[in-house]
Amino acid sequence: MTTELLLVEGMTCDHCVMSVTEELTEVDGVSDVAVRLVPGGASEVTVTTEAAVEPSALHGAVSEAGYEVVPS
User: Fold this and answer.
1) Would you say the C-alpha torsion 52, 56, 61, 66 has a positive or negative sign?
2) What is the mean pLDDT of the chain?
3) What DSSP assignment string belongs to 3-72?
4) Taking a C-beta distance cutoff of 8 angstroms, is the pair 66, 9 a contact?
5) CA proximity to 15, closest of 70, 72, 59, 66
6) Confidence check: pLDDT of 72 > 90
7) Residue 61 predicted with pLDDT over 90
8) 25 — pLDDT class (breaks 50, 70, 90)
9) What angle do CA 17, 69, 56 make, to 5 degrees?
10) Any residues with CB less than 8 A from the CB of 16 and at least 6 apart, and which?
11) Of 61, 7, 6, 72, whose CA–CA distance to 29 is shortest?
C-alpha cells in the first residue's frame, strides 16, 4: 500500500471534493481518497493505492473532474 499527495487547485466546496474523490476512486488500484479542502488555494488530496498507479492516471482523473494538479 502506498500513498500519493496531490495538490489540486480550483476546489471550493464539498461538491468539488465529491467530484475529485469519485474520479480518483475509479482509477484501478486506488483504495482510498482523503481531501483537505483549501478554498482559494491548493487542496491536499491524499490517494492511497493497493498497487503502483501511474501519476499520469491520477492527474488525468483530477483533470476529468475539472481541476488541476499543481507542483508541490
Assistant:
1) positive
2) 96
3) EEEEEEES--SHHHHHHHHHHHHTSTTEEEEEEE--TTSEEEEEEEESS---HHHHHHHHHHTT-EEE--
4) no
5) 66
6) no
7) yes
8) very high
9) 110
10) 10, 37, 43, 65, 67
11) 61
